Amino acid sequence: MMKMLLYGAAALMVTSSPVKAADIILSPSARAIIVTEEIGSNDFEAFKLSAGSLEGTWLVSLGGPGGNLSAALKIGEFIRLKGWSTLVLDKCYSSCALIWLAGVPRMMGPWAQIGFHAASFRGQEKGNGSALIGAYMNKLGLGYDAIFWATTAAPTEISYLTPDKARELGIDVEMFEVKQATAQPVAPPPNSAPISAPSPLIKMRDCSGIGLDLWNFFPQSFTDCDPKTRPKPFVFEFKYKTIRVWDRYIPSSKRFVTRTLQRCEDCRTEMLPPDRKRP
Q1: Residue 24 near residue 62, CB atoms below 8 Å
Q2: How far apart are CA 98 and CA 226, in angstroms?
Q3: Taking the model in full, what pTM does it have?
Q4: Which of 62, 139, 206, 220 makes a 20 to 30 Å CA pair with 170?
Q5: What is the pLDDT of residues 136-150, one digit of tens each?
Q6: Angle subtended at Cα 204 by Cα 202 and Cα 207, rounded to the nearest 5 degrees
Q7: What is the DSSP string of 138-193?
């Protein structure tokens, strides 16, 4: 009964208009589920409708600004029940980051920005929502230190999870290396007939909205893309600035624990010059 009441309260806690809904795309060839954009209030039902019948090992790739807390936690519980892995390659904040925590394993790319803050309604912090987050994280096997850190930042701020911070908090994270496939030309076999050009009746897909990270990771899903709309190389550049520090004494361990709140300064995406390689 208490769980139902908490979910009901959390259903109101959205970061923007309730008409928003996430994009949920299945890629059977890559055995991946791609979830992007803001989590809407009905997105658990949409996610379950799209992925509920899937069996075996699947990867859930996540990205977005957050959204409805109740729907996000239900999606996370569903992912943990299925035993699926989660991955963030780009930006994943608030409710999106909470879904990512449910992965087994949970993975992050070298340019991932995974951010947490306290639950809110119309920008105002709500303690019952943060309590629900704590219960959810505890259910995932995460400890008090991780829960405290994830709900410390105010709704207008954000705490970024770095690999070092994850190790400090006891959050198991696997680093995922993005590798760009480089196709090598293959000579045709002797006496083979020339390959004909694609039929003009076949309509190529406009892929101008596809990010390079998804292009590199799921190349099988974009074989019908118009070459003129393929994504161009880019690189993320960001710096973390510590804006708040807490020191807390834990009697059980007889030691002091330092908490830091960081903000991403001068975050931007730039085109990668042809003569530069990613760092």
Answers
A1: no
A2: 35
A3: 0.61
A4: 62
A5: 999 999 999 999 999
A6: 165
A7: HHTT--HHHHHHHTTS-TTS-EE--HHHHHHHT---EE-------PPP-PPPTTPP
